[in-house]
């Protein structure tokens, strides 16, 4: 006799997991929500269409208000265990710089992760995409059991744990949740304890213990030597777009006569674009022909983050690129520079290490006469 139980169980898992998560976690299609820095006197900012959405601190507070649904096993009594506390770590791998309708749950990715064990409730959070989940847990001896996870409601994970100078180390014994991705994410490297941070701890780990903390200045100094305009969205859709484009990935892009594009070795080639993700990643264009305006096009999913622009070595703009504008789920904008004298110039983009989100640069734009127009 043919059994349909495997297919039925698969559908039950899909429906129950999606329903439980809808109540526990906010959708991942929200932009970052930080505010745009105040404009300098010679900076003109176009009205941004980015919607007002929860910040990363708000996202963490939201999951703190949630508790697991007893999907298969009752929630354990709220007793403190040996591993209770808040932990953080920075994954050195490439971050996720795109959004998708159904990304793999617990997908290992570079950037800041936060983990909390609190009286029977485990919470986990990934800063770049604001992905998060929660589960029930129990501790017996040096064994940790996870269950009631909305992403894998019928799977129970078992881990061995140890606490040392590096923090909490988890070793997966048996966990198939999300095609083994949960075990890879939890056990790939130690989790630094927020209650006992080392003096030389990674600043992002320190900030992971306090998501509201800032790592540096978020507003650009006043600049009088050039004029800056910030236009939301894709500049190629303007009534007068940039006349020439030099793609961020010079190895796979369109060359522009008189323009040489270079980038840091750690930056990621992504089609004709460049993703700046490592600390102090940069992209520049050396220009040796008479343009009247030039600019940088930032564009990507809501996960893109902080950058600054230097013109001939002088910082002229900095900001959260995800808040420059939004159109049908695509975020970013065009920062135009004008008001400079003819001659050789260098325009340079640097990723600001204020969080662990990447920056996507599509191209440098140039106008021989005038500038872009809305």
Structural summary, described in words:
The chain has 374 residues and is mainly beta. Helices cover 11% and strands 36% of the residues. Strands 1, 10, 11, 13, 14, 16, 19, 20 and 22 form a 9-stranded mixed sheet that branches. A hairpin with a 2-residue loop joins strand 19 and strand 20. It starts with a helix and ends in a 7-residue tail after the last strand. Residues 1-41 and 47-54 have low confidence and may be disordered.
Kindly summarize this structure in a few lines.
The protein has 374 residues and is mainly beta. The protein contains 4 helices and 22 strands.
Overall pLDDT: 85
The geometry reads as elongated
Q: Sketch the topology as an H/E string, one letter per element.
A: HEHEEEEEEEHEHEEEEEEEEEEEEE
* Uncertain spans: 1-41, 47-54
Radius of gyration: 23 Å
**Approximate helicity band:** 10-25%
Distance between the termini: 68 Å
Question: Which structural category fits the helices and strands?
Answer: mainly beta
Strand fraction equals 35-45%
Number of strands: 22
| Major sheet characteristics | 9 strands, mixed
Helical segment tally? Answer: 4
List keywords for this structure.
4 helices, elongated, eight-stranded antiparallel sheet, nine-stranded mixed sheet, disordered N terminus, 374 residues, mainly beta, 11% helix
């Amino acid at each position: 006799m043919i059994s349909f139980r495997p297919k039925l169980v698969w559908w039950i898992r899909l429906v129950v997991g999606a329903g439980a998560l809808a109540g526990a976690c906010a959708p991942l299609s929200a932009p970052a929500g930080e505010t745009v820095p105040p404009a300098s006197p010679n900076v003109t900012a176009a009205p941004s269409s980015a919607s007002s959405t929860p910040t990363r601190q708000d996202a963490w507070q939201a999951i703190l208000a949630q508790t697991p649904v007893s999907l298969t096993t009752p929630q354990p009594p709220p007793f403190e265990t040996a591993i209770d506390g808040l932990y953080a770590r920075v994954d050195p791998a490439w971050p996720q710089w795109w959004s998708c309708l159904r990304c793999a749950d617990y997908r290992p990715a570079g950037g800041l992760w936060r983990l909390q064990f609190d009286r029977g409730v485990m919470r986990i959070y990934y800063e770049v995409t604001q992905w998060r989940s929660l589960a029930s847990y129990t501790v017996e001896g040096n064994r940790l059991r996870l269950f009631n996870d909305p992403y894998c409601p019928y799977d129970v994970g078992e881990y061995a744990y140890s606490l040392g100078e590096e923090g909490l180390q988890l070793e997966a014994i048996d966990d198939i949740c999300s095609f083994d991705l949960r075990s890879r994410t939890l056990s790939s490297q130690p989790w630094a304890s927020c209650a006992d941070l080392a003096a030389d701890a990674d600043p992002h780990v320190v900030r992971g213990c306090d998501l509201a903390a800032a790592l540096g200045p978020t507003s650009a100094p006043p600049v009088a030597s050039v004029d800056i305009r910030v236009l939301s969205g894709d500049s190629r859709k303007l009534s007068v777009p940039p006349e020439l484009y030099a793609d961020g990935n010079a190895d796979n892009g369109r060359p522009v006569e008189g323009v040489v594009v270079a980038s840091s070795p750690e930056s990621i080639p992504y089609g004709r674009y460049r993703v700046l993700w490592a600390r102090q990643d940069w992209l520049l264009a050396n220009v040796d022909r008479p343009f009247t305006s030039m600019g940088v096009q930032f564009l990507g999913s809501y996960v893109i983050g902080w950058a600054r622009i230097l013109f001939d070595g002088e910082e002229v703009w900095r900001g959260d690129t995800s808040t420059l504008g939004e159109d049908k789920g695509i975020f970013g904008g065009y920062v135009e520079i004008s008001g400079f004298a003819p001659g050789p110039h260098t325009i340079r983009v640097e990723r600001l290490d204020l969080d662990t989100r990447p920056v996507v640069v599509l191209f440098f734009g140039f106008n021989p006469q005038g500038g872009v127009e809305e």
